[in-house]
Amino acid sequence: MTGLALQQYLDFAYIAAVVLFVLSLRFLNSPTTARMGVLCGEIGAALAVVATLFNPEVAHYKWVLIPLIVGAGVGVPLGLVHMTAVPQRTALSHAFGALSAAMIGIAEFYVGTEPVTRFQMGEIGLEVIIGSLTFTGSLIAAGKLQEILPQRPIVYRGQNIVSLSVLGAALALAVALVVNPANAWLFPIMVIVALIFGVLLVTPIGGADMPTVISLLNSYAGFSAALLGFVLNSKVLVVAGALDGSSGFILSVIMCKAMNRSFSNVMFGAFGQVQTSAAGVKEERVVRSANPEEAASILSAANKVVIVPGYGMAVAQAQHKVRELYDVLTKKGIDVRFAIHPVAGRMPGHMNVLLAEADIPYDRLIEMDEINGDFPQTDVALVIGANDVTNPAARTDQTSPIFGMPILDVDKAHTVMVIKRSMNPGFAGIDNPLYYMDNNLMLFGDAKQFVGSIVRELGTGH
Amino acid sequence: MTGLALQQYLDFAYIAAVVLFVLSLRFLNSPTTARMGVLCGEIGAALAVVATLFNPEVAHYKWVLIPLIVGAGVGVPLGLVHMTAVPQRTALSHAFGALSAAMIGIAEFYVGTEPVTRFQMGEIGLEVIIGSLTFTGSLIAAGKLQEILPQRPIVYRGQNIVSLSVLGAALALAVALVVNPANAWLFPIMVIVALIFGVLLVTPIGGADMPTVISLLNSYAGFSAALLGFVLNSKVLVVAGALDGSSGFILSVIMCKAMNRSFSNVMFGAFGQVQTSAAGVKEERVVRSANPEEAASILSAANKVVIVPGYGMAVAQAQHKVRELYDVLTKKGIDVRFAIHPVAGRMPGHMNVLLAEADIPYDRLIEMDEINGDFPQTDVALVIGANDVTNPAARTDQTSPIFGMPILDVDKAHTVMVIKRSMNPGFAGIDNPLYYMDNNLMLFGDAKQFVGSIVRELGTGH
Amino acid sequence: MPADFISNLYVFILAGFVGFEVIRRVSPLLHTPLMSLTNALDAIVVVAAIIIAGRHETTLTTVLGAIAVAASFSNMVGGFVITDRMLRMFKSGRSKQS
Amino acid sequence: MPADFISNLYVFILAGFVGFEVIRRVSPLLHTPLMSLTNALDAIVVVAAIIIAGRHETTLTTVLGAIAVAASFSNMVGGFVITDRMLRMFKSGRSKQS
Ligand SMILES: NC(=O)c1ccc[n+]([C@@H]2O[C@H](COP(=O)([O-])OP(=O)(O)OC[C@H]3O[C@@H](n4cnc5c(N)ncnc54)[C@H](OP(=O)(O)O)[C@@H]3O)[C@@H](O)[C@H]2O)c1
Ligand SMILES: NC(=O)c1ccc[n+]([C@@H]2O[C@H](COP(=O)([O-])OP(=O)(O)OC[C@H]3O[C@@H](n4cnc5c(N)ncnc54)[C@H](OP(=O)(O)O)[C@@H]3O)[C@@H](O)[C@H]2O)c1
């Protein structure tokens, strides 16, 4: 009877956790309530973990508490990484999550006295395959983002056929296990094949496509947790996994839409490897450039300035200098806003986090759809390390690989100034006609240094 | 094995039905996709019903098919009622739904060879009580709306105590049955007491509060279906019930907000019975009135007209004449829009349905929050049978019973014309200072006739 | 407390969240059709009534079941008919203005 | 097909709908914190890992379980820490502009 009563407390703790998880995500719909959302998530997770420690099946606390302490010891530093390292941290945490899901699935296969049924075998097989491939795939993605591994897409002829055969082999092994679960020796082979597939899946994808890949891996990690919930008949896992899975899926769809590309193009397109050849037939065209002093004087003559940050600002870690620029200009009474393209930078929302880190108030960060109408009334659009997301060819040139991608219409501002180090193309590998326009000035240099020089100029003379 | 296979088909049919039900409601978020929503709902319901007919437990088709035919025979005419009868039809259908839920719960009590467990008894008891009180409560509501029963709130001293004791008695009987489910003779008494409570619950509430009551009964009917799902372990009932329950609940909250009243005030406040005394100390104030000819000439001189329909337009069935007025004015190049207050009329969205019935395009129907800013630029606000929803006392007079209720700011238009039959107050029973304002003209008469006369005048002279 | 109860509770809570999120976004224009549509969907209790009536266990339960079948099926049919009728009336200015 | 599977399928589908509705409305401003928060929530698989490790059935399963506990708990702790850190950075102009 007390055993039954305990089970009820556990059940209700899990139900409360599920409710808190949903509320947690709901509170994230606005920055004012978002921290409340984290609190809800924390309470829900704590409830579930503590309840589980009371589960009578948990008899050997040594094997639980030591790993928990280790986990906390690893988790806290991973929570304190620098903001610019967030993309690779996210990839790494997907790897951890998938590793854990895969290991539980494997343990579930070997645990217990009675052999698994065919139906359970099917669930476990699928779960372990998804978990394993997400584990290695996420590790590769983290490596590329951390620049331990080469960023370029690594491709060879017939690679899609090889990859798909490996996936097919993993699935065939799972089917063989379902047909006869007694063939337990097939199981480790299946795991290894799935691990290999994860490597093959992500290696050919270029570093700049990693954000979409991360989101997809996010949704895989979520779905493997949900599947694990099916295996263990644990509804809290099913719910948390479904929430995580749909979140990753929605983010990947948002990114693909913002790039005007399809899923399969991202996964199999090996984007960003050859298109530089498209820029082959380049005519001599006039490019005007300016130095920090000229840029500062143009800025101080403006009334409305829109700053467009991009990947280059993140790489150069220029956000704090940008904040100084924002301060100086604001103090001069100039209206400064930031135009945020949904796929600027290396992950969805990346620019927002960097600028928020530099203490720029979030109501100055304006989404693309909202700010695009304002460029014709903007005196200066200052592009800092962004390229593709400002390329007017996406609007006008039907032959461009990015034709149809929604972009920030900076070219409609009275004056455009672009801070970048060279005339080199951005991630999409294509020329940007913006740089040859009459109202455009190139500010060649590293983003952090150049912005710093402008701030100094503004501080002294103007 | 085939029995098991059949069970799987049934399970999947129910799951498909659940998915289709959710999609059905999602499609209702915009008028362009709404009919697709009905289609989804129909397919889902058909799937579930047909699947159930294949259930091997259903052995005696006579007892199923004849009631189905009878139900369809009753349902079709109830689906074809006149638009003005929609409120009472809705109340009646809640009564049917609750009747059916209660009867299934009762049958479940008497069915089966083994006696029910205490836990099941608790579920059944709660379900049958909610179902029964919703049944009689909805019948009373339908009677009041159809004006078979008196619309006035029927109150006596100590009525809340009496009602609550009856509810308490029903719950006490349920508890007694849980304590000892063998006391089966208590069960019919519990049902009867719950039926009585339903009558006591709704009778004291005034006819004009029926919309909120209907929504609440809607949510009760939904929750009783969900509870039935718990009793029968039928997830499709749990989901459909939860969707219906939350829908009714949300609509009641919206209405209460739009009236700036609380739930308990609606349920126990006996609103609309005595407040007429508040209008006692009336000073002689000037009211200007006009005839159809004058009204027509004012309208034809306008550029922007906003029509504000209310309960009186519904009662007078004036919507088709209003459509003629809209046509004549539009043909003269006048911009005509309709301002829709969330609680104008007798149920949420009532005005929209009536005006849509009269073929007025829905993009001319503007919600309160959206149109309120436009009244200062409006030449003529023509109020047709609306009163409380235009009462400026809600904005200014802290002592008014409707103080704080959001209203349509018709008094800010250059000219206001109000069609109603007399100076009598509306549902809230209070005087409307709008009628004494300088820019206001009263057009005394029945809405349908008066609008008809204006149309005739506009057709001839102007 | 039976395990079924717990799993039904999950379903109920999640369906409540779905209902809340979805219905809050139904256009106020369509609040009347919303009421009649949810009514029709709620009439899915007819599936439980069919089983009670079709089992034909005792006269009492069969009669109760048969009444329940008729009552809820009339709701289902009538609810869909009137919702569709109402929605057919909603026309946008662009598509119909002659 | 076990009955549990069916009820888990309901829970999965409904939770998917909830996720879809709720996450579509997360402000794009917060898409990065969203990723780290869902990561922390997903780390709830730690509860399954705790049971596997705590049962201590065979050495293999215990080791697998213990690794899983450490890996997922580090996600949980790290995910909440970094999400909260990020969100603390978001300040509106009204509240902080001096
Ligand atoms: N955010 C996401 O979620 C996401 C997802 C998938 C794909 N993408 C892709 O990523 C791209 C993002 O567009 P974007 O405009 O932000 O970046 P981009 O088009 O890749 O351009 C970045 C520019 O920054 C410049 N840069 C690099 N380091 C710099 C430094 N230290 N100082 C100054 N400038 C520097 C580079 O020019 P120089 O070499 O001349 O300096 C480069 O042209 C898009 O093509 C998008 O489709 C993003
Ligand atoms: N819609 C909902 O969901 C809902 C829910 C709960 C409560 N309510 C309440 O219902 C009220 C609705 O406001 P409302 O402005 O629409 O109505 P109202 O304030 O009740 O006023 C209706 C007016 O119409 C006039 N009228 C009646 N029959 C008429 C006819 N044949 N021709 C012309 N005029 C006629 C009446 O004046 P004469 O007698 O002088 O003609 C009356 O003053 C609000 O108080 C609201 O709180 C609505």
Using brief descriptors, characterize the structure shown.
heterotetramer; A: 462 residues; Rossmann fold; 3 domains; six-stranded parallel β-sheet; 6 strands; C: 98 residues; mainly alpha; 5 helices; 81% helix; flat; binds NADP nicotinamide-adenine-dinucleotide phosphate
Helix/strand/pairing class of chain A, anyone?
alpha/beta
Total tally of structural domains of chain A: 3
Rg over alpha carbons of chain C: 19 Å
Helix content of chain A: 55-70%
The total strand number of chain C stands at 0
Mean pLDDT over the residues of chain A: 88
**Low-confidence runs of chain C:** none
Order of helices and strands of chain C: HHHHH
End-to-end span of chain A in angstroms?
81 Å
Number of domains of chain C: 1
Structural class of chain C: mainly alpha
**Biggest interface, CB < 8 A:** A-D, 114 and 85 residues
Distance between the termini of chain C: 64 Å
Query: Main sheet of chain A, how many strands, which sense, barrel?
Result: 6 strands, parallel
Please, could you describe this protein's structure?
The complex is a heterotetramer, with two copies of chain A (462 residues) and two copies of chain C (98 residues). By secondary structure, chain A is α/β, with parallel strands linked by helices. Chain A folds into three domains: 1-59; 81-268, no CATH class; 283-459, 3-Layer(aba) Sandwich (Rossmann fold). Helix content of chain A is 58%, strand content 7%. Chain A has 17 helices and six strands. Chain A has helices at 2-27, 34-53, 62-79, 86-110, 118-145, 159-179, 186-202, 210-232, 235-259, 263-268, 292-300, 311-316, 319-331, 350-357, 368-371, 393-396, 447-460, and strands spanning 304-309, 335-340, 365-367, 380-384, 415-420, 440-444. In chain A, strands 3-2-1-4-5-6 form a six-stranded parallel β-sheet. In chain A, α4 (86-110) runs parallel beside α8, α5 packs parallel to α7 and α13 packs parallel to α17. The longest helix of chain A is centred in the first third of the chain and has 28 residues, at 118-145. The radius of gyration of chain A is 26 Å and the shape is elongated. Chain A starts with a helix and ends with a helix. Chain C has 98 residues and is an all-alpha fold. Chain C has one domain (3-89). Helix content of chain C is 81%, strand content 0%. Chain C contains five helices and no strands. In chain C, α2 runs antiparallel to α4. The longest helix of chain C has 31 residues, at 59-89. The termini of chain C are far apart. The mean pLDDT of chain C is 90. The chains are: A alpha/beta (462), C mainly alpha (98). Chains in contact: A-C, A-D, B-C, B-D, C-D. The A-C interface holds A 4, 8, 11, 15, 18-19, 22, 235, 239 and C 1, 6-7, 9-10, 13-14, 17. The structure holds NADP nicotinamide-adenine-dinucleotide phosphate (2 copies). One NADP nicotinamide-adenine-dinucleotide phosphate is lined by residues 208-209, 211-212, 255, 259, 310-312, 315-316, 343-348, 350, 385-389, 419-422, 424, 426-428, 446-447 of chain A.
